[in-house]
Amino acid sequence: MQHLLEKYGFRRCGIIYVKDGSERLAYQREPGNNAKDNDTDKSLGLNLGADDYVVKPFSLIELAARIKANIRRARTYQPLPCDMAVKIKDLEIDPVSHTVRRQGIPIDFTPTEFELLHLLGTHPGQAFSKERLYELIWKEPYFGNENVLNTHINRLRLKLKRSPDDTATYIKTLWGIGYKMEDN
């Protein structure tokens, strides 16, 4: 990542220390490249991993608002402790034993299906965009191909059904947005 950023005229200007102990590198355009503030360059910076892109000149009020928005967004997706079991309606998701039970009956899931179900289950009622779900589960940038995610969601729904007549729903589609786990 660092090599790509430097190749496209960015240079590391500092390290941002996050409360959880992690570090984020801060990059800025090399002097003389600041005129490249067109949409293509903004898009490039964001696609190379930037969380935000601020164009000079900018106001301190705008910068403070952008920082607060990024912090708020990061807090929204903080996962619950990974060993915390989740119960939604008659569904139990246990990450320690890597098991899912519905009405006490175990259901088999692939590791990816389990991770997706656990993520949704630890955030009941929270809407996730397809892009965000994809990036959290597959840990790579989302380029608009919804087929992989849609297929996994459909498999989850099929496996959660006890019979063809079963009308219980756990994962709700939010048209134009993404998905969410139904609340209890």
From TrEMBL:
Keywords: DNA-binding, Phosphoprotein, Two-component regulatory system
Pfam families found in the cross-reference section: Trans_reg_C
A Gene Ontology molecular function term of the record: transcription cis-regulatory region binding
Transmembrane segments: none
GO biological process, alphabetically ordered: regulation of DNA-templated transcription
A GO cellular component annotation in the UniProt record: cytosol
DNA-binding region per Swiss-Prot/TrEMBL record: 83-183
Domain OmpR/PhoB-type: 83-183
InterPro entries: CheY-like_superfamily (IPR011006), OmpR/PhoB-type_DNA-bd (IPR001867), Sig_transdc_resp-reg_C-effctor (IPR016032), WalR-like (IPR039420), WH-like_DNA-bd_sf (IPR036388)
Gene3D superfamilies cross-referenced by the UniProt entry: 3.40.630.30, 6.10.250.690, Winged helix-like DNA-binding domain superfamily/Winged helix DNA-binding domain
Protein name according to UniProt: DNA-binding response regulator
